[in-house]
Amino acid sequence: MSEHELRVSKIRNGTVIDHVSGGQALNVLAILGIDGEAGESVSLGINVPSDRLGKKDIVKVEDRELSQSEVDVLSLIAPEATINIVRDYEVADKLRVERPDFVTGVLSCPNRNCITQANEPVVSKFDVVDDGVRCTYCSTIVREDIADHLDVD
Ligand SMILES: [Zn+2]
Q1: Rounded to whole angstroms, how far apart are CA atoms 66 and 46?
Q2: Ligand 1 mean position to 145 CA, how many Å?
Q3: pTM
């Protein structure tokens, strides 16, 4: 085991999200709706040295296995991430990280006049395009800092 791997302890059951872009770990938690209130056990490695990325974050969530749809949303902020499902200390499954065609109910539209910002809002929907995401309703494009537009409780 390398020095890097030792920084975050092994988990028995759950999900290990590795190769997250440095500094994005807290946004990963936001996407997953993890705020500690449900008593989740989470280990974080933030800005860990990485050969491939320079610096990377690692998120280990115990007793929770991510779904492919959750992983799809993660790909927007962590395109290089690797997802390992762990059962009884062994990697039982690896999930592909692929950009989805669209995401619903995850991001909020920065356009105040957008129908998704109305008093009785419709659920947000963004098409994933080459250089970002585009609101399905008003075509506003978000290219950078997608995590700033996360709309998750
Ligand atoms: Zn919009």
Answers
A1: 20
A2: 16
A3: 0.79
